[in-house]
Specification:
About 70% of the residues lie in helices and about 0% in strands. The protein is mainly alpha-helical and about 280 residues long.
């Protein structure tokens, strides 16, 4: 008897969901390993955080290793947003269990999870990897469900969002992540193509995000004044050459001391940085 052929996705190409999942975890690891990052956790210090360090992030990443593969499979299968959301809720539970209740990757579970699902869905449709910008735009297929999904009004980010009247990652996702398409990805590409080493290119891109994004983590920790101050610091760094200047590392370390003094941490910008790195890397695999 001849065995039945396995049903292939469109164009006869199998989507390697496990590979996309590993790439997502690697992108989050790349972000935490990058240094110096003002106010953020690195392998060398905890920045403005008293409750977490690099080992906390590594425990979280280990707990999330199956989530990104699962959400990639769901995306490749054309699953509705409710299925993606259920995977995300389970991933958040696993993260909090691994970190004793510390939120290390809630933002990344949402944004990077959507982008991984969209990348897998686009590969199934086209039979090959697509550009990072196309992946961002593909998230809009879940637009209505994104807008309708309930939010946790008690989370620090949502309280800051409501208090200051700014948009958050849900609005970014529904719009196809313009901040990634129009800012983070072009900045990162230019920095790498100009010859900057990986960490320098990542830090330069992080500063661009900090300068222009209404980072809810900064708003939560420092209010509108703290956000403006952080944006001004990032803008001053960029206007002086950013990571293209010879003394960029020393200047970021000095900025980091000031962030720690003010207890500020641009966690939202860090999540977007990891997303940008994933989007760039998935183009080549």
């Amino acid at each position: 008897m001849i065995a039945a052929r396995k049903q292939l996705p469109a164009h006869g190409t199998m989507v390697d969901s496990a590979r996309l999942g590993r790439l997502a975890i690697a992108s989050l690891h790349t972000e935490v390993a990058c240094a110096p990052k003002p106010g953020l956790v690195t392998p060398f210090n905890s920045g403005s955080h008293d409750d977490m360090d690099a080992s906390t992030f590594l425990r979280s990443l280990f707990a999330l290793r199956h989530y990104f593969t699962a959400v990639a499979r769901a995306g490749a299968a054309g699953a509705p947003f409710t299925v993606l959301r259920d995977h995300g809720i389970a991933a958040e539970t696993a993260m909090l269990a691994a970190t004793a209740g510390i939120n290390t990757h809630r933002g990344a579970i949402f944004s990077l999870g959507l982008l991984v699902a969209a990348a897998a869905e686009r590969r199934r449709v086209h039979g090959h990897a697509v550009s990072g910008a196309q992946v961002c735009l593909a998230v809009q297929q879940w637009n209505d469900a994104l807008i309708a999904a309930p939010l946790d009004p008690h989370s620090p980010g949502q309280r800051a969002r409501a208090r200051h009247g700014v948009s958050g990652v849900r609005e970014q996702a529904a719009a196809g992540y313009p901040v990634l398409r129009e800012l983070a990805l072009p900045t990162l590409r230019h920095a790498l193509h100009s010859g900057l080493p990986r960490d320098a290119a990542l830090c330069h891109t992080l500063m661009q995000l900090m300068a222009q994004v209404d980072d809810l983590n900064l708003l939560h920790r420092g209010g509108a004044e703290g956000l403006r101050w952080a944006q001004q610091q990032a803008s001053a760094f960029l206007s002086s050459g950013g990571a293209f200047a010879l003394d960029w590392r020393m200047r970021l370390q000095s900025m980091g001391d000031a962030f720690v003094t003010r207890r500020l941490s641009p966690g939202g910008s860090a999540d977007l940085l990891a997303c940008a790195w994933f989007l760039l890397q998935q183009e080549g695999v």
